[in-house]
Design goal:
Blueprint: H1 5-96, H2 111-128, H3 141-150, H4 156-169, H5 173-177, H6 181-188, H7 194-211, H8 220-223, H9 231-241, H10 251-259, H11 268-276, H12 284-297, H13 325-329, H14 348-352
Helix pairs in contact: 3-9, 6-7, 10-12
Length: 364
């Protein structure tokens, strides 16, 4: 049976509709999936935008903070400049520091240790100067007391060169008490302060002649009453003319005992008491000679010969003077340096030890 065109058309239409419907459904599903992906993408973009917005203030704050950091950097050079400017001052201070001599550390020792050290020094000096003696020429107590008074503000050598002429013309207290002051002044001129010394020795001689029968008294309390006689002079006379112990605190003695830190006293009477307490009384006279000899020969006031000093290991002041041994030896005086001593007529023990007598006044 033959099918007409109209019938064929009627049959095809339902099939086409079904196919179109299925295609539409597939397209809708695909569109839905695309929409979901788009929605997810949109959500991701929104989250990213939100995060970006949150980060923006922090970034802005960072930008705002950046100038502060920059300012700090700019301020840093100012700090550096200040530091650098201050540095030279600090350096100057460091350079200036050595100019201030560091205070010397005092020797910290007990009284017993001080006594031991002081006595050891005296023993060492006794070995170095076994011939120590008063460095004024004299033959009797009268000559010694006059020579000691004249030794003020001058050297023992100058006195020893002057007294021979004085004693040759005025051998006794009575002779000198009756002397013409102008004639005595002319004799004493080389010793310096000759007018004042003339007055003292004439007055002293009158006191001896009138109050002590022309004899020099052997007691401290009597000696210090004589014109021009103090404790130092009295102890020189007592120790060397009468054999009675005494400490002679002259400039050499005072300087050395302070260097050795036996005492820090400067008043002669206080020095005498402080040092006397460290030694038996029987050693006082020879102790004086040892210390004074050392002060004149080695431990000088201005430049001690530390490098040639036999008691350097016991001395707290070591280093104040020349420490080089060769240079120090050139500073030694009198017999230690190979030169004449101060006495024209020294004791035989001094000559036996190699000492050289001093030349008389006016000798080349």
């Amino acid at each position: 049976m033959k099918t007409t065109k109209a019938a064929k058309s009627t049959l095809v239409k339902p099939v086409a509709k079904k196919a179109a419907k299925k295609a539409a459904q597939k397209a809708t599903a695909a569109s839905g999936k695309a929409t979901g992906v788009a929605k997810k993408a949109t959500a991701t973009i929104k989250k990213a935008a939100a995060a970006s917005k949150k980060a923006a203030p922090a970034k802005t704050a960072a930008k705002k903070a950046a100038p502060a950091k920059t300012a700090a950097k700019k301020a840093a050079p100012a700090k550096t400049a200040t530091s650098k400017k201050a540095a030279p001052a600090k350096t100057v201070a460091k350079k200036a520091a050595p100019a201030q001599a560091a205070p010397k550390k005092a020797v910290v020792e007990s009284h017993a240790a001080l006594v031991r050290r002081a006595r050891r020094i005296n023993r060492e000096l006794a070995e170095v100067y076994p011939y120590a003696h008063p460095e004024l020429d004299f033959e009797n107590p009268f000559q010694l007391v006059i020579a000691t008074v004249l030794s003020a503000q001058t050297t023992d050598l100058r006195v020893n060169q002057t007294t021979p002429g004085l004693f040759a013309k005025y051998p006794t207290p009575e002779d000198l008490a009756a002397a013409n002051p102008e004639e005595v002044e002319e004799i004493l001129r080389p010793t310096g302060f000759f007018r004042a010394k003339t007055k003292s020795v004439i007055g002293l001689s009158k006191a001896l002649a009138e109050d002590f029968g022309g004899e020099v008294p052997g007691r401290l309390e009597d000696l210090v009453k004589l014109p021009g006689v103090g404790r130092k002079t009295a102890f020189v006379v007592l120790g060397n003319a009468f054999g009675r112990p005494g400490i002679t605190v002259d400039t050499h003695f005072g300087r050395l005992v302070r260097r050795w830190q036996w005492t820090d006293e400067t008043d002669p009477d206080k020095v005498e008491a402080a040092v006397g307490a460290l030694f038996p009384k029987s050693e006082w006279t020879m102790l004086s000679h040892h210390v004074i000899f050392h002060g004149r020969r080695i431990c000088h006031a201005r430049k001690p010969a530390c490098g040639a000093c036999p008691i350097a290991p016991l001395c707290p002041a070591y280093g104040e003077g020349e420490t080089d041994p060769e240079k120090a030896r050139k500073l030694l005086k009198y017999e230690k340096g190979g030169f004449p001593g101060q006495r024209l007529n020294p004791p035989q023990s001094y000559l036996d030890a190699g000492g050289i007598p001093a030349p008389p006044l006016g000798a080349g």
